[in-house]
Amino acid sequence: MAHITRFEAPWFLKVSKKEYKWVVRANPGPHPILKAIPLAILVRDYLGYARTLKEAKRIISTGLVYVDGRPRKDYKYPVGLMDVIYVRGAEKYYRMVPDTKRVIVPVEISKDEASFKLVRIVNKTTVKGGRIQLNLEDGRNVLLTPEEAKNYSTYDTLKIEIPNQTILGKFELAQGNYAVIVGGRNVGAHGRITEIRLAAFKRLKYSIVTLTDSSGKEIRTNMMNVMAVGKEAPVVKLQ
């Protein structure tokens, strides 16, 4: 099904309820449908490079829009958290970041910042041959030796080069580091991690993380809603 009604679409999409009865439905892909923006809607309604869906489809089908360094010609391609968008011709770069009102929104970034992406490790698995596979939040996988894998933990954030997957660094979900909330009712808030209260039996997803923002306000949320984005300060531009 290519389209769904506006009322069936994710609530945060920047699409008028009165103007559009039908909305593009994102295809299955690296991001869950309910946490993604279809590429055509991003081009038309968020970035303003098209006035109609037909124009947005034409721009996308000609390979002018890149996601994470690769041209995407599917107008239903799901764009999600921390994806990097490049519009060829306009020479503009954007990153999808958490937002307090719209869950995720594009912010314009520099060409240098567009050379890398941040993505969380959701789990680690052992694959054939004894190597360790890091399973990343955007559907990527990184294979490492067991010795290399010891340096990475679930919910760590990798800084990776795009379009290839060279690991440039990592940010631990640890006290003192800078983080942003990517889910829940406090999505978009960011600050320093001041406390991590681990749940019993080491069940990380039930642990509670406290962030302190620039005004001194404390915000508590589930660990699975928190993404480390730097040490003293964020390495990416946030909303």
Helices and strands in order:
Elements: E1 3-5, E2 22-24, E3 37-38, H1 39-46, H2 53-61, E4 65-67, E5 70-71, E6 78-79, E7 84-87, E8 92-99, E9 103-109, E10 116-126, E11 132-136, E12 141-144, H3 146-149, E13 157-161, E14 167-171, E15 178-181, E16 190-197, E17 208-212, E18 218-222, E19 226-230
Antiparallel strand pairs: 1-2, 3-6, 4-5, 4-7, 7-8, 8-9, 10-11, 10-13, 11-12, 13-14, 15-16, 15-19, 16-17, 17-18
Helix pairs in contact: 1-2
Describe this structure in words.
This protein has three helices and 19 strands. The chain is mainly beta. It folds into three domains: 3-109, Structural Genomics Hypothetical 15.5 Kd Protein In mrcA-pckA Intergenic Region, Chain A, CATH 3.10.290; 115-171, OB fold (Dihydrolipoamide Acetyltransferase, E2P) (Beta Barrel); 178-230, SH3 type barrels (Roll), CATH 2.30.30.30. The chain has a five-stranded antiparallel sheet with strand order 5-4-7-8-9, with no helix packed on it. Strands 12-11-10-13-14 form a five-stranded antiparallel sheet. It has a five-stranded antiparallel sheet with strand order 18-17-16-15-19, with no helix packed on it. The longest helix is centred in the first third of the chain and has 9 residues, at 53-61. The protein is globular. The mean pLDDT is 92.
Summarize the structure.
This protein is mainly beta. It has helices spanning 39-46, 53-61, 146-149; strands at residues 3-5, 22-24, 37-38, 65-67, 70-71, 78-79, 84-87, 92-99, 103-109, 116-126, 132-136, 141-144, 157-161, 167-171, 178-181, 190-197, 208-212, 218-222, 226-230.
